[in-house]
Amino acid sequence: MIINNLCLLSKMNTVILLFANLFILTGLYYSTPFMLRLFGLIVLFMLSILAAFLVHYLKELMSKDHQPPVIGSVFTMLIHFNHLFDYMTDIAKKHRTFRFVTPTHSEVYIADPINVEHILKSNFPNYTKGDYHKSIMKDLFGNGIFAADGDIWRHQRKLASLEFSTKVLRDFSTVVFRSNTAKLVNKVSEAVVHDQILDLQALLMRTTLDSIFKVGFGFDLDTLSGLDETSNRFMIAFDDSNCILYGRYVDVLWRVKRYLNVGSEADLKKNIRVIDYFMYELIDLKREQMKKGKLEGDKDDILSRFLIESEKSPGSMTDEYLRDISLSFIIAGKDTSANTLTWFFYMLCKHTFIQEKIALEVEEATGAEHTYSIDEFSHKLTETALDKMHYLHAALTETLRLYPAVPLDGKCSENDDILPDGFKIKKGDGISYMAYPMGRMTYIWGEDAEDFRPERWLHDGVFQSESPFKFTAFQGGPRICLGKEFAYRQMKILAAFLVFFFKFKLVDKHKEATYRTMFTLHMDKGLPLHAFPRSKA
Fold this sequence. Notes:
This protein has 537 residues and is an alpha+beta fold. The protein has a single domain (63-142, 151-536), classed as CATH 1.10.630.10. The protein has 21 helices and 15 strands. It has helices at residues 2-27, 32-61, 74-79, 84-92, 113-122, 130-141, 150-164, 167-193, 200-217, 229-247, 254-260, 263-292, 302-312, 319-350, 352-366, 374-380, 383-387, 390-402, 435-438, 442-445, 484-501, and strands spanning 70-73, 97-101, 106-110, 127-128, 198-199, 409-413, 417-418, 424-425, 430-433, 458-459, 462-463, 502-506, 515-516, 522-523, 528-533.
């Protein structure tokens, strides 16, 4: 934590040091009186900005306009950035609705399901991504569905809805999930034979990336082999960009740093070049692949369908637009499932009796025996068998309750509004529902809210869902996640394979896992585990 804070302070100081160096160099060419006057003007300018913000902050702090209580400024969030979601949880236990003040507006945070339903459904048109969030996200996400509003969002939503509803894609994805999970099982088996420690998070990230590339783009990436340097660079660049971008929410100097191309913004620019090269190469390869075959007819992968669509409207569906759409699918298919499964196996290692209970359910649902090979088990893992795994489904959902793939999700208010709890929202205010803190609220889940208890999702042994405004892992309302069933199918196949063949234990059972503060809940430092053959465990 100390090292992380020092790194954060180092990034903040980059611009200050740059200005200091420029000031010293300027002093070599100008007289001392001129430099003193210049220094005085710079100090006066900075003090004026600080004073203006302080006046604005005090005004908001003393406001009697029935706005949410002020917890602090954006600088308060910066101090707590490395454990931001837990910091928000502590506040949410005292205030279901609260806000932080920025130099231009308030950032409101909500944890009450009735308020969540209001912004995600009841008054959906008023709460968009908005220019504030889009300006922060655009360098990486572009006009992809996660950062889009209006007609662009509706167009991508329609395309995605058509894709996820097709039986062809559903069947194709199931085959891909089984095939790539079989590769993962072989990889884990190798580690078992050589008595090696596994970083399960890294392996899950590679497996889900391979799967989304096959389903989404029709390519066998095979990152599990670890031999493809291009895909390795892409994954590192993407994860770092995700983290840097999220840091913009508490870095008031990020625009200056981007303009000067220094510090974290210079790193982001390099990462974006890596990502763009990878994505445009992907689109070009798919286009060439299709030219050699037939352009018409059904295609199994999503990008082929989008390219067919782009032939109908080349003016609107440019390569840049295809890049943004495709990257959104990668985010949805790789990060969300892999992160959830990482926390899932972490919790199974913390609760070994639950791990055993899931293994028993998988065995009973499939009718498979531990003498079965990977191929034999794969044939047994049918849709019918997966549907019988209510406890596994509940355990995955319980993981998402406590460790949602997207811990905070922000919107922007287009007009003045009043929330159901009576608090006023001003035009231009940001408003975020807090999936991570909500999963830990006793007023939502009961006194055992912070306990990992899959049984809370079962009624007479059958899985029962909850309101999407209470369980917000997949959003709710018009923006509810289209890939929800897609994600569950992938996670259940991966989990069923792994718990059937292996038993997992933490390398250090006393060490508590932490997260990286970014758009998705990525476990920091990976998940080092020991794996043992279940038949011999």
